[in-house]
C-alpha cells in the first residue's frame, strides 16, 4: 500500500513539474522573442521616414496655423473635456513659428542631427499643437506620439545620420558601432503597427468594396477630396484602383512583420 501511494505521489509530482517546466520554457521563448537582438539599421531607416512625415505635417499645417492653433482660430470648449488648453492658444505669429519649428525638427530628425534632442523637441511641439487643436482627430496624433516616445529609447541615430557622420569625423579611431540592439522597443513598435495597420488591413480585406477598388475610387471624388485626388480620378481606370487597393491591403497586413 505504501509503495502504491508513493508511486502515485511521484507520478503526480512528475506531471506537475513537467507542466511547470513547459510553461516556464514557453515564457522564456516569449521573453527571448521580445528582447532578443534585432538589426538596428531598419530602425534608423524608419527614423528617416518618420522625420520626413513630421516635417510634411508641419509644412501642411503652416498655411492654416492661425485657424487651427492660434487664439484667433477655432478655439472653443467642450463641456465634457477633462483637459482644456484653449486658454494656452498662442498668437497667430507664434502659431506659425511653432509649425515652422515642427517642420524643422522633423527635418533634423530625418537627417539624424541631434537625434534625441530633435525627438524631444518634436514631441513637445506636437503635443502642444495637438492640445490646442479642436479640429483634427486625436487618435492619429496620439499614435504618432507613442511611436516617437518608443523611438526615444532606441539607438535610432546610430546609422544613416549626421550624428554618426560627425562622430566619425571627430573620433576617427572609435569602435565600429554595433549592428544589433536589444529588441524590446522594436517589438513594441511592431505591436503599435499591428494595432494600427494589421487589423485595419484585415477589415479592408474582408470588405468587398475594398477588394474591387470601389471604396478607394469613391474616396478620390468625395466631398473631402483634394485637387490631386480629383486629378487622379479624371484619368485612372478602375483596374488601377483595384491594384492600389490590393497594394494597400498587402502593405497594412504585412508592414508590422517587417
Order of helices and strands: HEHHHHHHEHHHHH
Gyration radius (Cα, Å) is 25 Å
Structural class: mainly alpha
- Low confidence ranges: none
Largest sheet: 2 strands, antiparallel
Helix content: 55-70%
Widest beta sheet: strand line-up: 1-2
Count of helical segments? 12
Tell me the total number of β-strands: 2
Question: Could you report the average pLDDT, rounded to the nearest whole number?
Answer: 83
N-to-C terminal Cα separation, in Å? 61 Å
- Global shape: globular
State which percent range the strand residues make up.
Answer: under 5%
How would you explain this protein's 3D organization?
This protein has 258 residues and is mainly α. Helices cover 70% and strands 2% of the residues. The chain contains 12 helices and 2 strands; from the N terminus they run αβααααααβααααα. It has helices at 2-35, 41-61, 65-69, 92-111, 115-132, 138-152, 162-170, 184-206, 208-211, 214-220, 227-233, 238-254; strands spanning 37-39, 180-182. A two-stranded antiparallel ribbon has the order 1-2. α2 runs antiparallel to α4 (92-111) and α4 packs antiparallel against α5 (115-132). The mean pLDDT is 83.
